[in-house]
Amino acid sequence: MAGSRNVILIVVAGGFLILFLVFFIIGIMGMMGTGTRTTWIGFGDRIAIVTIEGQILESESTVRQLREFAENGSVKGILLRINSPGGIVSPAQEIYDEVKRIREEYNKPVVVSMGSVAASGGYYIACSGDYVFANPGTLTGSIGVILQYPVLEELMGKIGVEHETIKSGDVKDVGSPFRQPTREDSVMLQAAINDIYSQFVDVVVKDRGLEHEEVIRIADGSIFTGNQALELGLVDALGSQEAAIEYLADLAGIEGDIKRIRPRVERQPSLWDLLGSLKQTYVETGLFSGPTLMYLYR
User: Fold this and answer.
1) By three-state DSSP, how is residue 84 classified?
2) 121, 131, 166, 282: most buried by Cβ count inside 10 Å?
3) Does 120 qualify as catalytic in the annotation?
4) Which of 59, 84, 113, 120 is catalytic?
5) Which CATH number goes with the domain that contains 264?
6) pLDDT < 50 stretches in the chain
């Protein structure tokens, strides 16, 4: 009996170690998108390039870059390069809102260029642009919402760990990994998912000029290639990032050589930065804060 429990403890400890390593790597990758500052070099009209890479866990760094480029008079247009399967709902919505604000308040065109994947939250953000390019082999779409969380009640029982919750209402601890979900939990979470899903559908209907019924028909989480997305009206054209830049330059009235500028990383992240990013990743992906609504292609 003791031997079996020791084996279980080793397996559980190994599992948590693997999770730690995975999320530490994710934290490092997340830091690659932070710690940047816009650096201006040279003179004349130019195109700014802002990249959204990987899973969307926060919006602050991208919004800051967009805002700095919007406020600079030499930047006549912004290319938003998206290579992301999506991520947490709120950051995707905040980036979307900032792009729309820039287009309206600064009258600067924003053209979207999709990389290998621009799905779910990545596609949600793409809808904010004036014009959307995809490569023929881009994976996009995945219009929908997902919410996942582990249920560890049985595992905790096997290793002799008990967990007590004192709460003010039956659903206060909804999404807790320490108990089985109830029907009441599922009904409440499904209602929230349905509302967030409707918000996504409404954005596609409004920004892509499609009928509501058309969008509902394809908004079941399905993914599409760039070719398919063009046929469905989810993107405007097929073309590379360079084709998108040339289109943007024409839209912005830039003639001749197209000058480009990107945010520049001023320093490599320190160990302290990486640990902070790791903590944020744990929190924002819901490991400690409960279930998180995601516009995410898996």
Assistant:
1) strand
2) 121
3) yes
4) 120
5) 3.90.226.10
6) 30-42, 283-285
- 206 as an active site residue: the answer is no
pLDDT at 161: 79
Residue 197 lies in a domain: no
Total domains, the chain: 1
Contact at 8 Å (CB) between 221 and 193?
Answer: no
* Residue 279 · residue 52 · CB < 8 Å: no
Distance, CA of 212 to CA of 106 (rounded, Å): 30
H or E element, residue 295: strand 294-296
215 falls within a domain: no
CA distances to 18, 65, 71, 76, 137 from 48, in Å:
39, 10, 12, 8, 25
pLDDT of residue 104: 97
Catalytic one among 116, 167, 172, 279? 172
pLDDT at 36: 46
**Domain housing 271:** 36-143+221-296
The three-state secondary structure class of 38 is strand
Q: Does the residue 121 lie in any domain?
A: yes
- Would 139 be classed as within a structural domain? yes
Angle 271-284/2-31 helices, nearest 10 degrees?
A: 110
Residue with tokens 């097929």: 238
Q: Kindly calculate the radius of gyration of the chain based on its CA atoms and give it in whole angstroms.
A: 22
As a whole number of angstroms, the longest Cα–Cα distance in the chain is 78
CA angle 246, 46, 111 (to 5 degrees): 45
**Residue 21 is which amino acid?**
L
Note the pTM of the prediction, 2 decimals.
Answer: 0.81
